[in-house]
Amino acid sequence: MRNLLAVYRLVRFIVHVLYGLALIKLRFGSLDLPARQVHIKRWSGKMLAIFGVRLELSGLAARPGPKLLVANHISWLDIAAVHAVIPEARFVSKADVKHWPVVGWLVDGVGTLFIERANKRDALRVVHQMAEALKSGDTVAVFPEGTTSAGPELLPFHGNLLQAAIATETPIQPLVLRWFEPGERFSSSARFVGDTTLVQSLWRVLSAKGLSVKVEVLPALATAHADRRLLAEHVRDQIQHALTRS
Questions:
Q1: CA dihedral 167, 82, 100, 136 (to 10 degrees)
Q2: Which portions of the chain are predicted below pLDDT 50?
Q3: How many other β-carbons are positioned within 10 Å of the β-carbon of residue 110?
Q4: Using CA atoms, how far apart are residues 238 and 232, in angstroms rounded to an integer?
Q5: Largest CA-CA distance found in the chain, in angstroms, rounded
Q6: Which residues, including other chains, have CB under 8 Å from residue 39's CB and lie 6 or more apart?
Q7: pTM of the model
Q8: Which of 245, 179, 228 is nearest to 68 (CA)?
Q9: Which residues are 115's β-sheet partners?
Q10: 228 touches 124 (CB < 8 A)
Q11: Given this model, what pLDDT does residue 118 score?
């Protein structure tokens, strides 16, 4: 029965992805930004529903206006979880995602900024792009761990990308993501870590029962004159504390 459920979800997932591609290619060019964000929120929420994921929102409402969202990173579905709550977010993603089949077209179509993480000069370029986006009033989102983690214990936060918020004196809004399922406070089905391939991870999520994600919005933090390394450590501590008590 579980395999039948996974296959059923897979078919719906493929159809939904194709719909998303058509929406981006055929409709987005004629839509203003608020209309695009309505579609992003709706599409992301439907994506979670197709996987049987229950979305739980807690904490504060995200502050209006430009902000840098800083979140922990567990799954390739994290972006859908955030977009279902904060559809205006423009994510910073590693450059090779842009070349993933289908997924690359989707994330590129919603305004993602791409970074070559191994290239320090490219990181500087992206920081400038982020700063320009923040000054223009955009909301930018980053995963400062630089990769996915198992969930309970965070990896160190890299402060480089936080410099964009410091330079523009834009507030940082920490987000706490926790995937869970029956019997597991931190879901093993949602994790995308180690040698797990995207296909393997997709099948685990498709096969999961009772999978949920909690998105907790923490209070915004001022960034003016902050030290990026200390700020990164502070944000990490806040998110780690929230994960421990959630």
A1: -30
A2: none
A3: 21
A4: 10
A5: 57
A6: 23, 27, 28, 31
A7: 0.93
A8: 228
A9: 94
A10: no
A11: 67
Q: What is the pLDDT, as a whole number, of residue 239?
A: 97
DSSP codes joined into one string, the chain: -HHHHHHHHHHHHHHHHHHHHHHHHHTGGGS-HHHHHHHHHHHHHHHHHHTTPEEEEEEPPPPSSSEEEEE----TTHHHHHHTT-TTEEEEEEGGGGGSTTHHHHHHHTT-EEE-TT-HHHHHHHHHHHHHHHHTT-EEEE-TTSS---SSSPPPPP-GGGHHHHHHTPPEEEEEEEEEBTTBSS-SSS---TT--HHHHHHHHHH-SS-EEEEEEPPPB--TT--HHHHHHHHHHHHHHHHHH-
What whole-number distance in Å separates Cα of residue 163 and Cα of residue 81?
25
Contact 179, 190 (CB under 8 A): yes
Q: Are strands 172-180 and 89-94 parallel, antiparallel or unpaired?
A: unpaired
For β-strands 54-59 and 212-217, DSSP reports them as: parallel
Query: For residue 43, what are the contacts with CB-CB under 8 A and spacing of at least 6?
Result: 16, 19, 20, 23, 83
CA distance 187 to 214: 11
CB of 86 within 8 A of CB of 62?
A: yes
Q: What are phi and psi of 226, to 5 degrees?
A: -80, 155
- Provide the CA 68 distance to its chain's centre, in angstroms: 12
Tens of pLDDT, residues 126-165: 899 999 999 999 999 999 998 888 888 899 999 999 999 9
Tokens of 187: 């879901």
